[in-house]
């Protein structure tokens, strides 16, 4: 019995969809599904239909692409309302969401905490307003489709939604038993230095919040699972393992290897553990 993780399946692309359809049966294993299954509810449902037949349990969190809605949709169907629609689709498929009680991994007793926090532009230069941060990114011709497609209603901004989600999540994590050990999944990286994007460095403003930067030391977390960056890696900081588990767009993974090759083992912990305890150790994955 193993716990696996993967994110950013992006099944709107034919190659990705075929790869997901070809995932083999994993029997009693569980899967952490870290967001960006695709761009629509139908994409999410397509992925859920596959993974719930290949894994014994599936735990999900949304990515920004999952939250996209057409601009012509009324506000009543966008933002939180759309997120709630995704949550209900997951529940109908027997999939655990960030709105559900955390599951416990039977083999070790780890709490599997699926979290949803969004971003607040604070991974950019300090002190910038949301609008100034977007303008700063635009100086290098960097834009994000979220500015058009990820609506925040009823919140006034994505930052306000992000802050509300962080407060709610911190309360849930703080309420766990004092002897709990946590595997935390969030679509976005928790720390800004994990969101370094060499080709588009200013895209980092859409990658997380500095308000989560101390979570790995503030809460009893053993492993942090994230996606979003399409830059697969394993890092260690302060004794905590950080796994970026994206598959990505077709040019970012090897179709000959199939999607199964991009499933990251989370538990039991993979061996060896190079760089355990070091602050900057990074293992890159192809």
Task: Describe the 3D structure.
- The chain has 286 residues and is α/β, with parallel strands linked by helices.
- It has one domain: Metallo-dependent phosphatases (Purple Acid Phosphatase, chain A, domain 2), CATH 3.60.21.10.
- The chain contains 7 helices and 11 strands.
- Strand 2, helix 2 and strand 3 form a beta-alpha-beta unit.
- Helix 2 runs parallel beside helix 3.
- The longest helix is centred in the middle third of the chain and has 17 residues.
Unreliable spans: 274-280
The tally of helices reads 7
N-to-C span: 25 Å
Order of helices and strands: EHEHEHEEHHHEHEEEEE
Output the CATH homologous superfamily: Metallo-dependent phosphatases
Kindly give the count of domains: 1
Shape summary: globular
Q: Report the radius of gyration as a whole number of Å.
A: 18 Å
CATH-level-2 architecture = 4-Layer Sandwich
Helix fraction, binned, reads: 10-25%
The beta-strand count equals: 11
């Amino acid at each position: 019995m193993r716990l696996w993780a993967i994110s950013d399946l992006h099944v709107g692309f034919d190659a990705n969809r075929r790869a997901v359809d070809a995932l083999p049966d994993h029997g009693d294993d569980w899967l952490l599904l870290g967001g960006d299954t695709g761009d629509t509810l139908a994409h999410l449902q397509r992925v859920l239909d596959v993974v719930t037949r290949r894994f014994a349990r599936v735990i999900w969190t949304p990515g920004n692409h999952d939250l996209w809605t057409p601009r012509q949709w009324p506000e009543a169907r966008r933002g939180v309302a759309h997120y709630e629609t995704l949550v209900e689709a997951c529940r109908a498929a027997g999939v655990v969401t960030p709105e559900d009680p955390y599951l416990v991994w039977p083999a070790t007793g780890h709490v599997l905490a699926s979290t949803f926090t969004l971003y607040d532009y604070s991974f950019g230069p300090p002190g910038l307003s949301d609008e100034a941060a977007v303008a700063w990114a635009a100086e290098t011709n960097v834009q994000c489709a979220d500015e058009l497609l990820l609506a925040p209603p009823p919140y006034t901004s994505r930052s306000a939604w992000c802050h509300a989600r962080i407060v709610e999540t911190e309360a849930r994590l703080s309420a766990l038993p004092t002897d709990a050990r946590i595997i935390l999944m969030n679509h976005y990286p928790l720390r800004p230095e994990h969101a370094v994007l060499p080709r588009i460095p200013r895209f980092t403003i859409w990658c997380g919040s500095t308000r989560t930067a101390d979570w790995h030391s503030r809460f009893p977390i053993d492993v942090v699972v994230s996606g979003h960056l399409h830059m697969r890696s394993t890092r260690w900081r302060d004794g905590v393992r950080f796994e970026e588990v994206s598959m990505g767009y077709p040019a970012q993974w090897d179709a000959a290897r199939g999607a199964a090759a991009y499933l990251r083992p989370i538990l039991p912990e993979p061996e060896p553990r190079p760089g355990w305890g070091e602050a900057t150790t990074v293992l890159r994955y192809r």
